[in-house]
Amino acid sequence: AEYETILVETRGRVGWITLNRPEALNALNTQVMREIVAAASAFDADTAIGAIVVTGSERAFAAGADIKEMESQTGLDMVMGDHFGGWADFAAVRTPVIAAVSGYALGGGCELAMMCDIILAADSAKFGQPEINLGVIPGMGGSQRLIRAVGYYKAAELILTGRMMDAAEAERAGLVSRVVPAAELLDEAGTVADTIASKSLPSLYAAKAALDAAMETPLAEGLRFERHVFASLFDTADQKEGMAAFREKRSPDFQNR
Ligand code: HXC
């Protein structure tokens, strides 16, 4: 596929998507959304890929949805503009996705990071939902996912004031998985992604589905879902291989089935 706003690369079993609109601090316009969704879906359909990394530049992961593209839109335009379905497709990717965030992750950029499963932050990262400064509110999940990540009071303060928080505050708040020195961000993301991609795909898909269920369901329903999916993995060859390898004190050789 030909992409204009992102760079796409495969390294081993890991698919890399790098946002590449430096002139707009990687602002997420409709084309960027379509390209990210297309690239992530293509990786997701490929069993040679076991993890996806989404990253931006040193200065910006993404400074939000493209304000210049949105400015003249009506409410109906926003509904009809396919913004929401596109991002839902990205969030529905089965393969684990790591956001490697350096610099600004604001508005839609913060929301894109929160659609990923792991958020690794450079110590230079800045997170925020500044939409209130523009007379609007988060529109790609910010008001819902941020609360689940950091709790009501932290999320409300960020969304109502529009202020940014640095990487250390984001880590304390539980928005990021881990903070690393900026110079090590991509290496560290690669290491985490390689580790994940070395596991059995059916168990990775199951783990992500169970994590997603935890975000969306009451506890009793989530526990039922977990038990069902846990049991189903005992019909995979990789469960037999993983447990035999433990017993035989060797590394497992997973076949992704
Ligand atoms: C369009 C953007 C942009 C954005 C930056 N740019 N953010 N263009 N949409 N979200 C452009 C600038 O216009 C400028 O281009 C260039 O990128 C560099 O940005 P500067 O502002 O000159 O850089 P700096 O002074 O370093 O400030 C960085 C910044 C600031 C603090 C990140 O750019 C900023 O506040 N950006 C907007 C952040 C924001 O409000 N995001 C939320 C968007 S709403 P030119 O050509 O003009 O020099 C949102 C809603 C999601 O995300 C829901 C959608 C469905």
From TrEMBL:
InterPro entries: ClpP/crotonase-like_dom_sf, Enoyl-CoA_hyd/isom_CS, Enoyl-CoA_hydra/iso, Enoyl-CoA_hydra_C
Keywords, sorted A to Z: Lyase
Pfam families on file: ECH_1
Catalytic activity: a (3S)-3-hydroxyacyl-CoA = a (2E)-enoyl-CoA + H2O; a 4-saturated-(3S)-3-hydroxyacyl-CoA = a (3E)-enoyl-CoA + H2O
Family: Belongs to the enoyl-CoA hydratase/isomerase family.
PANTHER family per UniProt: ENOYL-COA HYDRATASE, MITOCHONDRIAL, ENOYL-COA HYDRATASE-RELATED
Protein name per Swiss-Prot or TrEMBL: Enoyl-CoA hydratase
Source species: Microbacterium awajiense
